[in-house]
Amino acid sequence: MSQYVLRRLLIAIPSLLGISVVLFVVLALAPGDPFSELATNPNVPPEVQAALRAKFGLDDPIYLRYLHWLNAMLHGDWGFSFVSRMDVDTLILQRLPATLYVIGSAQILALLIAIPVGVYAATKPYSLFDQIANTLAFVGFSLPTFFTGILFILIFSVTLDWLPFVYTTDIKATGIRWVLEMIRQAIMPVAVLGLFQAASMTRFVRSAMLDVIRLDYVTTARAKGLGQAKVIVKHVMRNAMIPVVTLIALQMPAVFGGAIVTEQIFRIPGIGSLLISSILSNDTPVVMAVTFVFACLVVLFNLIADVLYGWLDPRISLR
Amino acid sequence: MLDKELRSMIGQVKDGRMDRRGFIKHMAAVGLTAPLANQILALGGVAMAEGASTYKPTKRGGGGALKLLWWQGPTLLNPHFATGTKDQDGSRLFYEPLACWDPDGNMKLVLAAEIPSIQNGLLAADGKSVTWKLKPGVKWHDGKPFTADDVVFTWEYIIDPATAAITVATYRDITVEKVDDLTVRITFKKPTPFWADAFVGAPNTIIPKHLFADYKGSKSREAPANLSPVGTGPYKFVEFKPGDLVRGQLNPDYHMPNRPYFDTVEMKGGGDAVSAARAVIQTGEYDFGWNIQVEDDVLLRLEKGGKGKTIYAVGGDTEFIALNFTDPNTEVDGEKSSMKTKHPLFSDPAVRKALSLLVDRESVKKAIYGRAGRTTANFLNGPEKFVSKNTSWEFSIEKASKILDDAGWKPGADGIREKDGKKLKLLYQTSINGPRQKTQAIVKQACQKAGIDVELKSVVASVFFSSDVANPDTYAKFYADIEMFQIPLSQPDPSQHMRRFLSTNVATKENKWQGTNFPRWVNKDYDAAIEAAESEMDPLKRAAHYIKANDLMYQDTVFIPVQHRLKVEAAANNLRPIISGWANETDNLHDWYREE
């Protein structure tokens, strides 16, 4: 087992290197310039722009810049933002709490809805409950988050005036009021993201369950006289969860990566909005750091998913 | 001669035969901005009156929280590294200049004790030096006294090339010296009619010597104060999250009486302009929204029964169409739009003239900019009462057609005019931006009716405005026949603006398209006028030269002004913000208050 994990980790190194090369080259070749805003300002002489480019090493050849970046990254230096003139890791750490809180809650909400609904719908396929769940799921994942987000704002903020639609990180309250405010302002973004995720996940759970529920061993279990609840939870669900675990594991990096659209709508200062504003201002060190961390997380959670299979189904041996 | 006329007008203002406003009106008619006209008056011996204050509160603090919404939040808080006005706005909460501009272009004192004038001996009559008296007893937020040393240091910090300060252009040709602890003298190399540029306004705030002295030049990026500013302003720094939040609290030692009104200030970033307008005007979650570039009918809808309103400030931002004087379709020595070519169509002045008749400014205003735009014939614009009524523009397809007919451009079989085998086909480029694409459509339609075929092209703003040498789509390369955008008038003096279009500044492959003269318009008289202006000892004659240069551009139709754009902001109904078109939004923040 530990040998397997070690081997997988070693295999991950070349693939991460490959990913970093691709990311770096694409970003370096992409059009735009971090100091472009200065170009339209007649007050800023071109020499300043040239000096800034030289200062941040933008005039070096790509391979040299890549080696510099790689060397720094190995030493734990994530780079220096052109636009904010601060270390990228501080910038990312500042954004992480809001992302973890909002996107994490949304994922939990999605799971809390998807697993019970999906399982129950699968036990009674084509029943009224199943039909309703299916319809709602279709509606849920056909509506993009930018639409539901604005719809929620119009209903709950503008018309009813119940919830704020600008997310603030510095709530001026303490104790229980602070907690309540934090929950209040997160309701809309969490609901928008959570319901969207839940919709597709419900369909997934339901079909995974249906695949397993028809197998012979389930009939055997029932024939042994086991109760419905025990059959479903112990025998069906455990096996049906294997593809679901993959799906969830692959979605975990997204919790750290943030949700670009939703964060923009509700002004949540998360990783997603950092990423999009950095892309728009061509702040390559930040884009590079965020995307690379994202790549690392995808690799890591893939490994975790593989390890979990072994626990869920002992027949899958890890060699 | 114009300088004589100017002199006699100044004389009239002096002995009261002409009022100040009348003088400024005359100056605006010839393309000068209100702040500049005021400075010329000062040089002519008429002391500048300080802008009136409308501030009412009678005690410091007690105003609660001021919640500002900047949909592009500040990403750094050192004014001399600011990559955009958003950073200057954020820095200005904490740092202060010597003086700033009010909505009418009048000077208002901040850290200076007196407005320099010839009468009080602070302004040299030849326009070659200005002395600033500093307010006594001003303290930095950490308790250290503010002195002339800080002003001199700020200059030294900026002019060090290794610092790469973006404000360097204002400072590299001046010398700043300390006279005594509360007096600094600025010496100019040339007579300078715009003498109130250095250390005036949000981009030119003063930084503390004791915190930045060790971080001058190449070490500038390591300064801890870059991220936690210590200034002299009305609010003390509390917290900064780049792109998201800037927070400050009342400075109990602030040097202006009864100010500031608000106990805390918060500047929230992110999102988009429409939802920012909503949060201020419709739900009232925020007090003030910055730069609300939203279609007018959306704003009108939000304002109905809302909790806030839009406010407008007149500045000098003009959206224009520039004409390419070289051929963008012929490649010479690996370079399109090369100076070795002539534009096949625009070399005929009739085509340029006809084109300017085909830009329907009124429709552009009605359909797109609404209350946030004004039709104009001028490249430089000012407050409404000062704008020239002598110049005019016209939209007439018939006249344009007639001019083209007379010049020999006859419609071909496909309805497109042609002459000597050359078809009137134009490529019209701009950056991607809703109002700009709509303007393109309006111009295209009119051109089609007059027999000119226009192909539209729009480029992502980050590419269009970049200095990327490898990219063919930048405004500087100008691989199109006409292009439209706006150059922000970042200071109320046209001299920087006018220098752009010298023939030595043409953007070419040789200078990696860093040249600022993108229309590639070359005119000897223009060069001579600018040259004469820059070596001119007399500030009034200098102004006359600029006016001549300005006129030359009009005669040649180098630019077609499309719309004079106003600053649009959103504010809560009870907030009394002071917004000047000549300054950053937060430049007069110390005077903001809330009506109870």
TrEMBL record, chain A:
- Whichever gene encodes this chain, its name is appB
Q: Where is this protein found?
A: Cell membrane
Quick check: keyword Transmembrane helix in the entry?
yes
Protein family per UniProt: Belongs to the binding-protein-dependent transport system permease family.
UniProt-recorded name of the protein: ABC transporter permease
Q: Which PANTHER family match?
A: INNER MEMBRANE ABC TRANSPORTER, OPPB IN A BINDING PROTEIN-DEPENDENT TRANSPORT SYSTEM
Transmembrane region(s): 9-30, 100-123, 135-158, 186-205, 240-266, 286-312
* InterPro entries named among the record's database cross-references: BPD_transp_1_N, MetI-like, MetI-like_sf
Q: Which UniProt keywords apply?
A: Cell membrane, Membrane, Transmembrane, Transmembrane helix, Transport
Tell me where it mainly resides. membrane
Annotated ABC transmembrane type-1 domain ranges read 96-305
State the membrane topology.
Multi-pass membrane protein
Query: Which GO terms are recorded in the biological process aspect for this UniProt protein?
Result: transmembrane transport
What is one GO cellular-component annotation here?
Answer: plasma membrane
Automatic annotation (TrEMBL), chain B:
A Pfam family: SBP_bac_5
Top-level taxon in the UniProt lineage: Bacteria
Domain Solute-binding protein family, chain residue ranges per copy: 125-505
GO cellular component terms, A-Z: ATP-binding cassette (ABC) transporter complex; outer membrane-bounded periplasmic space
What keywords are annotated for this sequence in UniProt?
Signal, Transport
InterPro entries from the entry? Answer: Peptide/Ni-bd, SBP_5, SBP_5_dom, TAT_signal
Q: What is its main location?
A: periplasm
**Single GO BP term:** peptide transport
Q: Where in the cell is it found?
A: Periplasm
Asked if the Swiss-Prot or TrEMBL record annotates the protein with the keyword Transport, the reply is yes
Q: Per its record, what are the GO molecular function terms?
A: peptide transmembrane transporter activity
The Swiss-Prot or TrEMBL record describes its family as follows:
Belongs to the bacterial solute-binding protein 5 family.
Name of the protein in its database record: Peptide ABC transporter substrate-binding protein
Protein's organism: Bradyrhizobium vignae
Q: What is the lineage of its organism?
A: Bacteria, Pseudomonadati, Pseudomonadota, Alphaproteobacteria, Hyphomicrobiales
